[in-house]
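Dear colleagues,

As part of the handover before I leave the project, I'm documenting each prediction I ran so the next person doesn't have to rerun anything. This entry is a single chain, and its sequence is reproduced below.
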Amino acid sequence: MIRRASYTVLSSSSCHLRRRLHQTTLLQSACNLMNTSDVVLPPPRSVATSATTLRIMPSTNPNDLAASSPNTIATQPRLCFSTVATTTTNTSSPSSSNESTSSTNNKKEKDKKDDSNIFLDNLGKIFLSSIGLVLLFLLRSTKSNNSRVALREEMENAALLDPLEIEDLRCANSDFTMEVWNTIVEEIKNEFVARGISSMTYPQFLSLVMRVMKDVKGEGFTVQMGHLMDRVVIAELERRREGNDDAAGHQEGSDELPLSFLLASLSLALNSSVADRIRVLYDSMLIGNEMNSSSSSSSEGQEESTNTNNNDASKEQVEEMIQNLQSTCQLVPDAQIVETNSKVPYQTFRVGTGSELARRAREGYGGKKGSQGVTRDGDGQVTLEDFHAILKSRTVCAWGECYIKKSSRTSTSDR
């Protein structure tokens, strides 16, 4: 009995060992088949089928393993492995597509930001800046105009003669015609110019004028409202005395005035047309030329005198005559205003001199509207026609004639 029981135990143990050995052999065969790539299986139809197939595992029962065919045993683990790989691939593809879509959207947003219009993005700032610049320009223009108007009003208040007073002076001396003027000039040439005298005192000049006027039309003929002419002469004497440093030591010499200034003062009372008044002023400038020609040669004095009447006035003589007209209040205040070099924060103005006004009239000047000049030559000699154009230009405007529009060349302004 004991020997039979021992045999039974050994039989069962050997069976168990053989079963384990057979199972191990099958597993090794299955693993070898899984590593081969000869078997091609159809892809899974869906993720759900793959998930179901994933749970199929090789059976550990030896009877089931023996009953199954070798092809089934070899392909079943391959089916599980392929299904797992396919399932992993199918489940990971949506996440990668989402990442690519988000990266594409980010690129589009960045491109939109880079393609933004600077003008449209800053439209409000540009609009406000434009409004500010316009307001600043209007403020600067207003300040400049106010500065010019203030200077003009100051000149009008400080003027020695009013335009209406000059008109009354001419109307009161209706008998002071061109014939009387020519007689006075001839007497001046004989008594002063012939002796080389180009300046004299105001009493000397006035006594000669009164004597000639009495000789022409009697004792009652004189300069009416002469106090107006006295006013401008006295003001000029005071101005020259203030400008002279040693006026106390040269009191007699300082009382003398140039002959051109005295004749310009006398023209205030001349009752004539504008053209005749311009001509007598031009002839007054040429008296200096006659004085030089008469002193150079006495034998040919008459011939030289005839030739000098056709000579042109020099640049200096024209500038001096315009200064005389400015001193005797025969130029409008607005024409005497010139710009200064101070343009910040706004343009300022000052009163121009006779030489500046003559140069601006002849050569032209810049500015907002500008001017081309009224003479053919900006420098050099000046003819009677050029002198006529200078006095009627906007930059000189003698007696307000620049505001009168005519078709002739000498009557147009320099604008």
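The CA atoms of residues 338 and 397 lie 14 Å apart. The chain is about 65% helix and 5% strand.

All the best with the project,
I.
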